[in-house]
């Protein structure tokens, strides 16, 4: 099983990913993960390589992580799409040695159209938190 936790930042994706990892899903080594910070002292549970690939996907679409417009991966230049799909394929291949695995990154909510065709056994967990609570948490 390949588990992708989807949701806006500050919507509970970190705690859900942490729980899935505690239940036995592989998330990666500590060196693979973003370090905890004061605003998320339990850790983000995000793989650095996946966050970097997702940021590259958004950049190739002409957007950033805080913008939800212009994120159509089909509008990406074919060369960029092929390069980024190869990067996704490589990460998925390496994680498949540790099934079940779980990953999360708020950018995945926007980049999942590029990821989905490269997954064999995807399972999506969608975290939802009231937008007002997310805004308050960000503030």
Written description of the protein model:
About 40% of the residues lie in helices and about 10% in strands. By secondary structure, it is mainly alpha-helical. Strands 2-1-3 form a 3-stranded parallel β-sheet, with helices on one face. Helix 2 (about 50-60) packs antiparallel against helix 3 (about 80-95). The radius of gyration is 15 Å and the shape is globular. The protein starts with a strand and ends with a helix.
Number of extended strands: 3
| Average residue pLDDT | 88
Most strands sheet: 3 strands, parallel
SSE pattern, N- to C-terminal: EHHHEHEH
Query: Could you tell me the radius of gyration in angstroms?
Result: 15 Å
Numbering strands along the chain, what is their spatial order in the largest sheet?
Answer: 2-1-3
Any idea what the shape is? Answer: globular
User: What fraction of the residues are assigned to beta strands by DSSP?
Assistant: 5-15%
Termini gap: 36 Å
The residue ranges in which pLDDT falls below 50 over 5 or more consecutive positions are: none
Total count of helical runs of at least 4 residues? 5
The secondary-structure class comes to: mainly alpha
What is the percent of helical residues?
40-55%
Oligomer: single chain
């Amino acid at each position: 099983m390949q588990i992708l936790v989807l949701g806006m930042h500050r919507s509970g994706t970190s705690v859900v990913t942490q729980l899935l990892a505690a239940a036995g899903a592989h998330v990666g080594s500590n060196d693979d993960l973003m370090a905890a910070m004061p605003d998320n002292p339990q850790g983000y549970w995000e793989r650095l390589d996946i966050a970097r690939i997702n940021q590259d996907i958004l950049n190739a679409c002409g957007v950033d992580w805080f913008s939800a417009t212009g994120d159509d991966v089909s509008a990406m230049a074919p060369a960029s799409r092929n390069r980024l799909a190869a990067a996704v394929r490589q990460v998925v291949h390496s994680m498949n040695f540790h099934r079940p695995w779980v990953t999360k990154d708020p950018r995945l909510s926007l980049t999942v159209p590029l990821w989905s065709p490269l997954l064999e056994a995807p399972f999506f967990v969608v975290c939802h938190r009231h937008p007002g609570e997310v805004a308050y948490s960000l503030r």
